[in-house]
Amino acid sequence: MVHGESFVIPTRGNSDIKNITDQVQKIVSNSKIMEGIVNISAVGSTASISTIEYEPALVEDMQDQLEKFISHTAPTRHGSTWGDENGFSHIRATFMGPSITIPVSDARPILGTWQQIIVIDHDNRPRERRVFVQVIGE
Fold first, then answer.
1. pLDDT tens-digit profile of 45-55?
2. What are phi and psi of 11, to 5 degrees?
3. Looking at the 3D structure of the chain, how many domains does it have?
4. Which pLDDT belongs to residue 80?
5. What's the whole-number average pLDDT of the chain?
6. What's the rounded Cα separation, in Å, for the pair 84 and 52?
7. Between the chain's N and C termini, which has fewer beta carbons within 10 Å?
8. Domain containing residue 79: CATH number
9. Which distant-in-sequence residues (6+ apart) come within 8 Å of 75 by Cβ?
10. Which of 7, 28, 18 is nearest to 101 (CA)?
11. Residues 6+ apart with CB under 8 A from 121
12. Using 50, 70 and 90 to split pLDDT, how confident is the model at 79?
């Protein structure tokens, strides 16, 4: 069986990190799938999906490291071509990836005690981010 749903979450941009674990769990529950996998995917080329221990200090550490990895002030050909100055956001999103897949058992994503599912909006402006969740199994 395959079940898919999406949801929209508002973000502030600039590598804003949002905990989406509850939304994903709700979709897994809605699917009635007991055993399988869930794929969580950010729709768009300037956002990423990952996991983290979602607590304020680590969220800030992650944002600091993303800025060191590719600064929002780094000039890019993309920014020069399109004038949107968000080339850095595309690069961050490409390296982090748009999606993750997590096992499902007993109708729940298998996550560690301190592990939450997150969306990271790397763009340079606030957005309404769409996340697509697909559950596959039986």
1. 999 999 999 99
2. -135, 160
3. 1
4. 86
5. 97
6. 29
7. C
8. 2.60.120.460
9. 87
10. 28
11. 11, 12, 13, 14, 15, 16, 18, 46, 47, 127, 129
12. confident
Q: Where are the alpha helices (DSSP H) in the chain?
A: 21-31, 56-69, 77-82, 87-96
Tokens read off for 27: 């979709």
Determine the structural domain holding residue 110 and report its residue range: 2-137
- Give the model confidence (pLDDT) of 82-110 as tens digits: 888 999 999 999 999 999 999 999 999 99
Residue 18's identity, in one-letter code, is: K
In this prediction, residues 53-74 reach a mean pLDDT of 96
- Contacts of the segment 68-74: beta carbons below 8 A, 24+ positions apart: 69/95, 72/14, 72/124
DSSP state of 91: H
- DSSP assignment, residue 55? -
